[in-house]
Amino acid sequence: MGKFRILVKGIVQYRDQYLVVERWYDDNIFDPYQWEFLDGEMEFGETPEKAVQRIVEEKVGIPVQVDKPLYTWGFTAGEICTGGIAFLCDAQTDEVSLAEELHDSRWISKDDISEVISNKAVVRDIVAAGLTSQFDLDDFGKVDLFIEPMD
After folding, report:
1. Most buried pick, 2, 30, 139, 149, via CB within 10 A?
2. CA-based nearest residue to 146, from 113, 122, 116
3. Cβ partners under 8 Å of residue 71, min gap 6
């Protein structure tokens, strides 16, 4: 029997800026550091809203208010089926305290997103969230680390 897990993603907004974090993936790929939004796995007994608040606070030290769900996604890898929910979150501060697993962070405007983000999966997140429609996925030729969602 297969296993299930639920991921939550926090697209954190402070005024007119969005928080992206740089995470290390693998020395054996073209660009081992990738800019992305915060995400993590729900724990047993948590609501999705509480999970995203916990994850954002653990990873960047910022308490947030969950505004609304933006979109969902899903994929299957091996025996594990993963579902995800992305939330728009409002921060009361822009002071970031990075968890050890993260390399860097930036607050960027909608106009700067295309200059910072290079990962196709994150670009799909941006388009799905309605943050911008200025991207053409064909412009992003770097290695895609993520599995395509199931239809």
Report:
1. 149
2. 122
3. 85, 86, 125, 128, 129
